[in-house]
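Minutes, structural biology subgroup

Action item carried over from last meeting: produce the structure token record for Helicase ATP-binding domain-containing protein (Triticum urartu). EB confirmed the sequence was re-checked against the source entry. Recorded below for completeness.
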Amino acid sequence: MATLIPRAPPPNTHRHFLHRPPTLSPQLRLRLPVRRLRLASPVVAIATVTAAVPPDDISQLNNRLRALVRRRGVSSAATSPMDPAQAEAYLHMIREQQRLGLRQLRRHAAEPEYERDVGSNGEDEEEGGGRRKGMAARSSLGHRVDPRELEPGEYVVHKKVGVGKFVCISGEDGEDYVFIQYADAMAKLAVDQAARMLYRYNLPHEKKRPRNLSKLNDPSTWEKRRLKGKLAVQKMVVNLMELYLQRMRQRRPPYRKPEAMDQFASEFPYEPTPDQNQAFIDIENDLTERETPMDRLICGDVGFGKTEVAMRAIFIVVSTGYQAMVLAPTVILANQHYDVMSERFSNYPDIKVAIFSGAQSKDEKDELITKITNGHLQIIVGTHALLTERMAYNNLGLLVVDEEQGI
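Output recorded by EB:
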């Protein structure tokens, strides 16, 4: 991820840029290696920020892991430093997953793509004649916007100036110009320049307002905000790398594929979609072949078959002697999941399904907790009442979280 550090424009370079404005009206923490599967619905858009941590930063990660061990007083293989060769292998796995994920996003992205100015040697040209290597000539992952698609009052971000409000496109001397209102002045940009430098402040149709507009004549404030954001992203990346490296060091024996797996799959009354089939394959491979914990996000709108994907994962886990927890955000949704799963697993009398929620009486809860602790229940569906301190699982192997994404 390339980050551009704001700087003040060179003298006499952007005098035409200023134009005085007219009058305007104003989660649950679980011990690994519990597998986790998240169901997300509905999905309107997916925004992702990615950044690569070079191999040279492995030592930094190991130093932070050592500090974590000292701070928590933990001495386990899960948090012990790793040698560079092992860490590089893990980083390769992460980069491969990142590559596959970005490829899927590029394929499905709905944002229009805009050409960058590319030099004859294949390097991207930036404002002021600078070039950067290794950047794709086309990108569908950013939110760079065609200024002709903006509506008056929509918030935008200029790469070098900051947050402003789109006013209009107006013609002067046979040329079209974009007018952007800032806190202290109005910016006037040629349309082609605006197309290269402007980004949406929000995702399409999002109405969130910025806290304040940037100052056109004071780029230092915007520079501080950019630097603060850059440092926050770098910190997030290092923390994520720590999480992934620790997770990949966890070990658990792969589940064996149930003999009745094909029969269970054949009982699904509908024809699976290609995406469903791929999700089935990926999750089954995670559970039956990998020795590291699974953590997957299944995205799809209502009725797209996410629950069936989750139930096949549950079937693998409970058939091996483990328990599965299904966490729903509301009692209504928990009851729906309970009804669906009770029917889906009705042909397998050894698999017991129960529901646990705050709406039940104390006696009912006590009885269920006893059965869960003793291992007499294999699938437990419920709300956040499942997270009570009184709850003790016999052998929890899979957590399924159904959550709505408000993107």
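Discussion: DSSP finds nine helices and 14 strands in the chain.
Next step: EB to file the record with the rest of the batch.
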